[in-house]
């Protein structure tokens, strides 16, 4: 478990505690028959802190961001080409099945 994962769990725990405190606060307001005008400031601060921690963890746990440029060195992998080729074959096969045509001279049937 890395540091980002621990921070993410801490953020989720803080948000859960804020939800629990809000439920308790609403129960107290029902007993005292007061209206809920706004949430307590400590709950708002916990929610903001939990959101910041969860956002930071979400950005750091996944690792390094890769470039989306097609000609970058980070994207030049043989695995990507293999997946693209397999998707191309599936697409051609589906077109042949839908159109009822033959693929490479062989008859294609659904059953």
Structural account:
This protein is 66% helix and 0% strand. It has three helices and no strands. It has helices at residues 3-32, 41-61, 78-99. Helix 1 packs antiparallel against helix 2 (41-61). The radius of gyration is 27 Å and the shape is elongated. This is Membrane magnesium transporter.
Number of strands: 0
- Distance from N terminus to C terminus (CA atoms, Å) equals 49 Å
What's the gyration radius in Å? 27 Å
Structural class label: mainly alpha
Features:
MMgT; 66% helix; transmembrane; 3 helices; 111 residues; 2 domains; mainly alpha
Question: What is the element layout, followed by pairings?
Answer:
Blueprint: H1 3-32, H2 41-61, H3 78-99
Brief rundown of the structure:
With 111 residues, the protein is mainly α. 66% of the residues lie in helices and 0% in strands. The protein is elongated.
